[in-house]
Amino acid sequence: MNQLFDTEFWSDLLDKVQGWLLEEFPGLLILTIIVVVGLRLVRLFLTRLKMRMVIRADRIGDIDGVEAAKRINTLMGIVRGLIRIVVWTMYIMIVLKKFNIDIGPILASAGIIGLAVGFGAQELVRDFISGFYMLLENHIRTGDVAVINGTGGLVEKIALRTVTLRDFSGVVHVFQNGKISSLSNMTKEWSAMVFDVGVAYKEDTETVMNVMKQVGDELQSDPEFGEHIIEPIEVFGLDSFGDSAIIIKARFKTRPIQQWAVGREYRKRLKKAFDERNIEIPFPHTTIYWGEEIKPLNVKMNGRLDENTGN
Questions:
Q1: Vertex 126, ends 124 and 129: CA angle to 5°?
Q2: pLDDT for 191-205, tens place per residue?
């Protein structure tokens, strides 16, 4: 305790600090600058490399540019994260050495602790292995729309341990790779929008199918939506008999993530075409027996009953 008030103690301490600042600090400062600049150069290099790979993929006719960009973005994110971990780990080891801290026991302890953690953190190891195979087999990529364990959303981030989704409401969902039991990718290579169009029983199915095909062809010719459509609309025909309508099934093949925009525009145009041709899209109705006389009553969605009329 008396050493704190001893001028010789403070003099020796000041000399040591000055010696360390003159001998070790410049090297440490230069090392820090090299690490920071090096990481920025690596980031710039990976960005340039990613752009070149995307451009090259666009030039190859057999590879879809959007799909290639998704996979390249995902892999580059993983590579950059691994490089950062390696560089900062080496930097910390060098800094400890500069402070005359023996890193040998630290490395030995880290090995023993890692072995113990490996036995206790089997779930973590399973997450990493599952994430590795998921990336290797190209199941999903950043920018895909996927359904994981029953939850759908846009894939915002893929790491070796977790996958992050953001749903339509903006809620972020994080899934451990090892606990993903079901995965559905809705935007891999191409997407599709399926239509179940219900019309009244009195309508001629051939006429309805021709109108649906005509509207689909017009939409594909549209300069705004046509570039998102891969193939002409497929009208499969009468699919089922409903309680008050016959169901005609059709499908559009689109570029990834564009199926919803194309589907909304097609439904809007189809409704307009049906109205122009007086093709009825039925509403729920029933027949009520009133005593011995049968009086058909049409039940509209607003609940109003009009006797003997279709209004």
A1: 115
A2: 999 999 999 999 999
